[in-house]
Structures are given as C-alpha cells and as structure tokens.
Amino acid sequence: MIHIPKSEYSRRRKALMAQMEPNSIAILPAAAVAIRNRDVEHVYRQDSDFQYLSGFPEPQAVLVLMPGRLHGEYLLFCRERNAERELWDGLRAGQEGAIRDFGADDAFPITDIDDILPGLIEGRDRVYSAMGSNPEFDRHLMDWINVIRSKAHLGAQPPNEYVALDHLLHDMRLYKSSAEVKVMREAARISAQAHIRAMQASRAGLHEFSLEAELDYEFRKGGAKMPAYGSIVASGRNSCILHYQQNDALLKDGDLVLIDAGCEIDCYASDITRTWPVSGKFSPEQKAIYELVLAAQDAAFAEIAPNKHWNQAHEATVRVITAGLVDLGLLQGNVDELIASEAYKAFYMHRAGHWLGMDVHDVGEYKVGGEWRVLEVGMALTVEPGIYIAPDNQNVAKKWRGIGVRIEDDVVVTRQGCEILSKGVPKTVAEIEALMAAARAQAA
Fold this sequence. Notes:
Blueprint: H1 6-19, E1 24-29, E2 35-37, E3 40-41, H2 48-54, E4 62-65, E5 74-78, H3 83-89, H4 94-100, E6 106-109, H5 113-121, E7 126-129, H6 135-149, E8 161-164, H7 166-174, H8 178-201, H9 208-221, E9 226-227, E10 232-235, E11 256-261, E12 263-265, E13 268-269, E14 272-277, H10 284-301, H11 310-327, H12 335-340, E15 367-368, E16 371-372, E17 380-383, E18 386-388, E19 404-406, E20 409-413, E21 418-420, H13 429-443
Parallel strand pairs: 1-7, 5-6, 7-8
Antiparallel strand pairs: 1-4, 2-3, 4-5, 9-12, 10-11, 11-14, 12-13, 15-16, 17-20, 18-19, 20-21
C-alpha cells in the first residue's frame, strides 16, 4: 500500500515553522471520536490538518510546534500505553512510539497537558491555532491562556497575538508533492476499478444499494478503509438530485444510473462520477446529453494548465453545454446572451469542479485579491460538468425529462497541462456499452 513517507511529514512541519513568526507556537488538536449511537463509535478518521503535519492516526492528541526551541521543536501530547484499553481498542503508540515512529522531538501524556502546555505558551508572542473549527478546543486554549494571565503579577507573559493557522497551512496543502500525487493516483486507481465493477454488475431488478455494495467491495479489496464521502448511486429521476444518498431505488430498464463515488487512501480522496444506462444501451436522447457533457469535460481539460486561471475550465464547460443545449432545442436564443443571462443554470447549476486532496472539497482559496486563482503545478482538482433535466420540466419535450448525466475525473496540474488521475474508467458511449455487453455475455 502506498503511503506518505515519514520524511514528508517532517518536511511539512519545517515548511510551516519557516512561515511562522519568531517566538511563536502552533497548537493543533486531533479529531474527536464521533459517537454513532450510545457507546458505539464511528470509524475514526483523523483531522486533515493534524494528519497533514503528523501522520499520527490516534484520537486524544495535541500537536505543538515551537520553532527555535532548543529542546525540540515538535511536541506531541498523546495517550499513554495501557494494556487493558489496548486489549479492547487496539494498540497505542504511547510517548515512545510518538518519538520513534512519528518523529516527535518530545512526547507527553495527554493527561498532563493542563500542567505542561501553559508553560510552553508562556513567553511566546503569537499563538497559531485552528480557531473556530473546534469550539471545545478553543475553550481549552483560552483556559490555558487564562492560567498564564492569572500569573501576570508574578511576571508571567501571555501571548499578544492569536492567529488562525488556516491561511498558512491550507495554502501549503493546495500544492501536492510527488508523494501526495502517488497516493491520490492509487486512490483513483482503486475507485476506477470500483466503477468498472459497478458497471459490469448493473442490470434491471437490482437496487441502487446493490451497486453501492460492489463499490464498497472494491474499495476494501484495494486497501481503502472507507469511502472518501457518502457514495451517490442515483438511477432514473434520482440522477437529477445532485447530492442524492438514499441509494435504495429499483434499477429499471431504460433508466440511467449516475454513480459519484471514490475511496480514501492514507487520508487522500478520490472523487469520480460516471453515468451509464442500466440496460447497457443508451437511448438516442441519453446519448445526446451524455456526449454533450463529455465534450464539455474535454473542453475543460484543455483549460487546465499553469498560468491559466481557476475559472477558465468552468467557463469552457458553460460555453460547450449552452451551445449544445441550443443545438438540441432545449434552450432557444443566442449562445452569448444565454450565457450572460445564466439560462444554462436550469440544466447545469453547479461549478465544473473543486480542489481535491485530503478533504474531498479540499482547502485553498479560489480567488486571491478578488481575482481567480492562477493554476500552478501540483494543484489537484476535479472536473465534473453535468446536465440535469428535471422530471417535471414542462419546458422540454417529455423524451428528455428525468435525464441526469455527470462525468467527473480527478486531475493534477503538470508543467504541460494536467494529468487525469482517474482515466482508468471507460468514458465514451462505445466503451461503456462494450464493457457492459461483455459483462452480460460472460454472465449468460
């Protein structure tokens, strides 16, 4: 299994500390354990920022960075080893493991944080933290600050400034290293196999959850612990619901099924959408809409390269889709005027993509100084145009209603343009129909 190497976590911490003000401290908590019901917990998933800097997979931990500290710049508070709890819940790194396996310069029991952390904060001019994203931890931080303030008459010096860590850290996360791209490529490869498996299994009489089970099987078989987000398996009219997640309707001949699903490897997401006919054969109307969306996606790929701005890919999809809808008679009028009036939004109401990384909708600003961000090598994003013709749209002929198509791939900006990480899934009408025909022939 491909993982981010330990050396990369160290490099990230050094890069962040190089941007921090002198005599400052950064404090970041691990994700809390989420309760599913009563005393049953959800599968644990580390906070993305915490994971990015540490690779440490456990809850009840706090990471501290203190650039220039003579006794070590990277400190980790974490759970102690505990034979009884480890019997129930699994092994813990403990303080020795935090240093040996996760590169901490020093490590302390999390139970001692109230005694130790105020002393580390005292005398530092600036505190960087994830302000606002974890209210409970914000309260703890203020408690530690207040401990220092209560001793001001004894000469204790509380910090002067409190700064959100986001603007430094999230800009770093926007640029993917070669190691990150390798992990994302692997996540996309496994997800591509899952989509192929679902295509091959697709037939009338199954339920949407039957295809979701095929996805989950391939994710786990490939080594992914979990999907990167709730899988969307939307057939028939459900394909026009952008974030549909019931996944329980019957698959019917004549309907399309839209699957938006991807797995997560080492906390890095993939995000792929494919749309295909339940029966294995597109109707003329389905084919026309599908090929229009595919053409829009190809136009977007051509606009993803260094020195092109973020919105150029979206603008390309809008132009292709609007002109195509006019050609099909679903919109009437001048293409430029229809774009200006946003008439296309009745059919294409979302943007062409989003940043992709440790979060499916990854961190990073889309605009800088009020202008669209210029793309640079290492930025990763999705490209996902779609057309959705509502089942009750009375402005179009009945034969078009209820058709929803989205095609989504994951790309990373390269020096030459972009690499499509998720290219392993069939995408043309001919490829999809051939794959499904072969699967049916084999099953017969």
